[in-house]
Amino acid sequence: MLLFYFGNRMQDETKFKNKDETVKENVSKNQNENQVFKTNPQERNSERKNDEISKKYSSNYEIDRAKGKTVVLTFDAGADGSRLPDILNILSENKVRATFFLTGPFCEKYPSLVRKITEYGFEVGNHSYAHNDMTKMSNEAIKEDILRAQDIIIKTTGQDPRPWFRPPYGARNDRVRGVLKSLGYETVYWTIDSLDWEDNMTVEMEKNRIYNNLVDGSIILLHIGSKTTPIILSEMIKYFKSKNYRVTDLSGALR
Q1: What residues does the NodB homology domain cover (predicted)?
Q2: What is the tens place of the pLDDT at every residue in 51-104?
Q3: Domains parsed from the chain with CATH numbers
């Protein structure tokens, strides 16, 4: 039985990554700094405060795969929304679910198109506002960016994107995941990156990349603006079904 609840969310059929991807800077420099005895009380207090912040905002869990005979389709928003209607129609015609990760500017640029996502009954997630590398941002800057995007997504779609958040560029570490958790979000990564955004991507290259890496519970990263994905999407869905995969969204796979 799969268990999933918010707050202290529990899942017994979800595979999480448990790893520290914090960027390591100059190790020898850090070692030398650690050898310096801090005698300044203000400096010691500052260190304690930083330690408390690190402990408060820290999480090493993220969703990168679902268990069972499922395939999870996820679409990230980019600069181009012109192919979104085709994607929505294909998903609906094939009677499958998908999760759409939206940025604030995408919602602002294509409000009527974005509304169709929820009108078709699909779920949305948060993909940030400025699409910056959050490992290089302060906790407060991360919060401000996420909440700004969240507000726009809710106003545009009428749907709260929580609990799903996909970090821009996939850049994340324990601190970023911790800040996301404090805002009610789960960090969603992927099992297969289709690379469908690359200029030299062809339909055959994309199909081979996805089919050759397909495993039970695959979360597939696709892009709304891809020139190749809409062409092969229906064929891919039929292929997944022929292999007895249930094609669904994050909620369908994890709740």
Answers
A1: 69-248
A2: 444 445 556 689 999 889 999 999 999 889 999 999 999 999 999 999 999 999
A3: 62-254 (3.20.20.370)
Are the beta carbons of 116 and 85 closer than 8 angstroms? yes
- Nearest Cα neighbor of 105 from 127, 124, 134 is 127
- Per DSSP, helices labelled H in the chain are 27-35, 41-56, 84-93, 104-109, 111-119, 139-157, 174-182, 203-213, 229-242, 250-254
The backbone torsions φ and ψ at residue 98, rounded to the nearest 5 degrees and listed phi first, read -160, 160
Cis link prior to 105 (omega < 30° from 0)? no
Alpha helices, DSSP H only, in 62-202? Answer: 84-93, 104-109, 111-119, 139-157, 174-182
pTM: 0.79
CA–CA distance from 78 to each of 107, 167, 226 (Å)? Answer: 10, 13, 9
Residue 14 to residue 65: CA distance in whole angstroms? 7
Beta bridge partners of 149: none
What confidence tens digit (pLDDT) does each residue in 160-204 have?
A: 999 999 999 999 999 999 999 999 999 999 999 999 999 999 999
